[in-house]
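G., the chain you wanted modeled:
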Amino acid sequence: MVVTCKEVWREVSNYVDGTISPEMRESLEAHLAYCRQCTAIIDGVRNIIVLVADGQVFSLPAGLSARLKARLLKEL
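Predicted structure as tokens:
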């Protein structure tokens, strides 16, 4: 099965959590082998999990939430 970037983005949480089927994992990993953009997204999600899990509190830049939402809506 060939997956698109949008399918990777929809499954990123399940992929990182390890809750997808072996077939979907194989397809996503095949996509990640050549798609640097999706690989960066997966790496970013993993980094966020590490940052949140360590319990440190830090401030986000003003307007980040609105910019992030606008970017996600544009991409999807």
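Residues 2 and 30 are 8 Å apart (CA to CA).

Shout if anything looks off.
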